[in-house]
């Protein structure tokens, strides 16, 4: 049968509305999401997505070595596997983490279906409804969506151009505790933060770990971009200085995201709970994917490939920063990321980035409004621009269009006074979808 | 660095014991699990596992077509994908489900990381702590583990050799409702049930759907073994007669489990919630795996391969049933499955299968005690034997050893009176691990 000849049965009305779990109240399609469907048209320059550019991977070589793997180990790589993840990949991940100063034991690693699942499982084992998770200002939209789906209250900690502020962290912890709430962990992306592009200084990392330890708050360090340092060498991971940090890693940006392989490194007792949660969630993480990555690490120059990726992303970042310098009207500021995928723009006072998005799409440029990266309504003047996917020439065109939209907004504000936001429903972080990852 | 030269840091004591979410109380390592580590020794015949036997797959052909896929579509198949799953695979799944009489729309399918994740996401969107899920007696251990991890109360519905009893179902629903509890859904495996091997008759399927509909209880139909009919053609799926049944499908038994690809077919409103839950859990299901399966369905004789699998499993089932007939002492009974992987044995009165397991391992045969498949302590006299993985000769040896263990237990009972169970902690279903899948 085909799609078209099937009589569409009437299940559009939600008969189940009274049956859903309370946690589904935290799972809402954002108003922003609908616009992204439109934003996928080819004439639009998307500075919205977080997709890595993987076209430089040696596909022919990968094809050959994967075929060899299937021929020689097919019945193993296509079979059920360990709930914790394959031992040989866990050994190899130790070498990857060693590049950021982490010394660990393969027993304390759990492989996950991307680091998003790592975050889901960590939240699952620690958070009851009403618990508090602390996060940077701003923080990763996909993490906020996961926390909300577990009915967790997210409290943002003030952050600046060196990342999360340790003094503000201590104050925030005290305030939340005084309100009688239980803080389960701090969620942080210390390297090239998504969305801000900011990197925590080495000093701050130590101060943050010390402050959390003193308060009995776990630290969850999410580090998908760590090896994509575009200027200096990476700063050692928080986990390299503190065995009790829960560390989330990923192959999505250093190899390819389609395999959905990430990992959690956790203290031993926590790791046991994570494995039980993983088995209950999926029996075992994707086995074929794990062997595919293991095979890639063993048989290809993966470190050389990371250098290729760095050079490519450096060119794109520089193109974006130059274009912003040339194009943006006065009163606009932005971060200068030393790695990763994202630049965080602060618009002149009075502008509303979410209200601007439809006008951006109309001008053939897409971006993510800053409010997506807050659980509490902040971010109206902010925009995340990503330089990872479009080539440099397209980035320049995109920034020109974006700047033109901002200039027009400023003109409108001059004429009509303070900008009034378009009638669009307030954004709530939700499952981000690949477009926002 | 290597494992051995790493100083083992002291994180064995669980400092986090007060930090975990309440739901982790439902996630416990079962006493049975520890024995399975021992049971993996090669001299032991394992009749415990649920691993499909995939050695007959055409590995060379699969290797070639996967390599071609990577060469020609590598940047697509290794990239992030849709949170709902790839459209071309969803179209192909319609053809798979059509073999069991299901007519559906690809919009109403969500791809999952194995059908275990389908079950996890369905439970996530429907179940608050304290809600009730109804299940067969006995029911799949991995499902029970997932329900417990969501703090769901499982109520078993009496079942017989035609599957779940519709009259008992109506009575159970009334009793649970009268106790003031909310029933969210009935979880059922109508074809070749895991663990009982029993198949629901066509008549009963209709009665069960009607009873649930009348009571406002959703039906979740889990059908991993449906195409592995070993005698007659499969009975049409429950979903084929009722659009409001939530259907879980899997490629783990008809192709290979290592890709971790299953699916949920759900009414449209439910499907939307499932996609949001999927994005929050993993961003998107494994993309490479989806394309690998899509490629297999398109370029290989997958239906012919299912016939090969059927013939192979039929031989193993027949070997197991013959051996049971020859070997088992009087007072033992067992099911005669028309498909799937499992035979369900009922031991003579007075025996305890969990207490027998260490003696089984000692006699070099492993099995799963029946209590694993109940949330309420039933099943002491039952054992699940699987015929899927070992070849026929090994199955015969395994059944001989199993029968010998039973005979010795009976002798002991004759000598010492009623059997007293060994001091082993009561089993609770937990994440099953691949050994129990």
TrEMBL record, chains A, B:
<keyword id="KW-0663">Pyridoxal phosphate</keyword>
<dbReference type="Pfam" id="PF00155">
    <property type="entry name" value="Aminotran_1_2"/>
</dbReference>
<dbReference type="GO" id="GO:0008483">
    <property type="term" value="F:transaminase activity"/>
</dbReference>
<dbReference type="InterPro" id="IPR004839">
    <property type="entry name" value="Aminotransferase_I/II_large"/>
</dbReference>
<dbReference type="InterPro" id="IPR015421">
    <property type="entry name" value="PyrdxlP-dep_Trfase_major"/>
</dbReference>
<protein>
    <submittedName>
        <fullName>GntR family transcriptional regulator</fullName>
    </submittedName>
</protein>
<dbReference type="InterPro" id="IPR015424">
    <property type="entry name" value="PyrdxlP-dep_Trfase"/>
</dbReference>
<dbReference type="InterPro" id="IPR015422">
    <property type="entry name" value="PyrdxlP-dep_Trfase_small"/>
</dbReference>
<comment type="subunit">
    <text>Homodimer.</text>
</comment>
<dbReference type="GO" id="GO:1901605">
    <property type="term" value="P:alpha-amino acid metabolic process"/>
</dbReference>
<dbReference type="GO" id="GO:0030170">
    <property type="term" value="F:pyridoxal phosphate binding"/>
</dbReference>
<dbReference type="InterPro" id="IPR050859">
    <property type="entry name" value="Class-I_PLP-dep_aminotransf"/>
</dbReference>
<keyword id="KW-0032">Aminotransferase</keyword>
<keyword id="KW-0808">Transferase</keyword>
<comment type="similarity">
    <text>Belongs to the class-I pyridoxal-phosphate-dependent aminotransferase family.</text>
</comment>
<feature type="domain" description="Aminotransferase class I/classII large">
    <location>
        <begin position="61"/>
        <end position="401"/>
    </location>
</feature>
